[in-house]
Amino acid sequence: MVLQFLRTLFLRTRNVHYCTLRAELLMALHDLEVQDIISVDPCHKFTWCLDACIREKNVDIKRSRELQGFLDNVKRGQEQVLGDLSMTLCDPYAINFLATSAIKILQMLINNEGMPRDNTILILLLRMLALGLSAWVMIDSQDFKEPKLDSQIVTKFLPALMSLMVDDQVRQLSTKLPPDERDAAITIIEHAGPLPDAVEAYIQESSVASILAMYYTLHVTRHKDRVGLLRILAVSLLIHVPDEFGAADFCTGLFDEFFFAGLQRDNVARHLLKLLWYVYPKLPHSRLHTLMKALQPTHQHSEKVHSLYQALQEKISSQTEPIIPTDMDIDLNSPLMNVPTPAPYHHVL
């Protein structure tokens, strides 16, 4: 009955943390050794194995075979189990783990000159990502089939993403060279051009590709690579690089080409207001004026957006440090800073 409530609430709200609750309840029952429940829950062994991987931050060969075995051995007539497995994989902590692990494997493949198609653990991670990202649609449609992973994600998108990663590494390496050698290296090859066509195309077409691109953006932002960030902008952790907001090209790429495209969406306006709360002193006056004018909420925006806008306006006018509203308060050290919730709209901070 509880599981049915969780499925129904997930369907009605699309709130992926009902998937988190489903997994957390099962793990709590596992820890308490409530055999009457865990022995009949068809997801128990899969969820336990995935939870162990998340805690250890690693998927080894043995665990990958176990996870793959659970997916491959769903029996005819019991396909509904895939709905529960997809909810387990839709948990943002699971999505975070799968995507982060995939990026680490791509990095390893670059270092070892390997190909994505040859790495069985990577293929499994992508398969689980695809299943997790399709959870809502699967349960809503009651069509319990594992979504087929587009082979071109592996043969075209990932190699293109890896080429982008190599560009960023070479550019970072060139900054450590003596000035004369650095200039020569930059002259020989430019590592700041547009995105490879395959990266741009698949980000728009595939939820798996867009999640991987988003996590690589997180990686680039953590390394404070402004050129890399502007190339693959899906915006995250931006409050960690406030000084960049004084640069015209950074503001153009971030605001004009990214945020303004989705400004009519309530959640985009809310995230942008949060971002400005922390970085507005670094912005040129004319840019800040334009942003505040564009962000002025209308009757279509929620009350929360109206209150955040008013609080920010008052802060800018007073140039003081008022008490941070609950909606604006962001714990920069929280692990949730690294767990963007997968959803069909912009997620920023």
Report on the architecture of this protein.
Keywords: Elongation factor, Protein biosynthesis. This is Negative elongation factor complex member b. The model is unreliable at 332-349 (pLDDT under 50). This protein has helices at residues 2-13, 17-31, 35-38, 44-56, 61-72, 81-90, 92-112, 120-133, 135-141, 151-174, 179-188, 197-205, 207-222, 226-231, 248-256, 266-279, 285-295, 303-318. The radius of gyration is 22 Å and the shape is globular. Helix 6 (81-90) packs antiparallel against helix 9 (135-141). The relative contact order is 0.08. It has 349 residues and is mainly α.
Major sheet summary line = none
Structural class: mainly alpha
Q: How many H/I helical runs?
A: 18
Query: Percent helix among the residues?
Result: 55-70%
**Between the first and last Cα atoms, what is the distance in angstroms?**
35 Å
Shape summary: globular
Whole-number radius of gyration?
22 Å
What's the β-strand tally? 0
Order of helices and strands: HHHHHHHHHHHHHHHHHH
Mean pLDDT level:
80
Percent strand? under 5%
Uncertain runs: 332-349
Protein name: Negative elongation factor complex member b
Keywords: Elongation factor, Protein biosynthesis
Key traits:
349 residues, mainly alpha, 64% helix, globular, protein biosynthesis, elongation factor, Negative elongation factor complex member b
Summarize this, please?
The protein is mainly α and 349 residues long. Helix content is 64%, strand content 0%. It has helices at 2-13, 17-31, 35-38, 44-56, 61-72, 81-90, 92-112, 120-133, 135-141, 151-174, 179-188, 197-205, 207-222, 226-231, 248-256, 266-279, 285-295, 303-318.
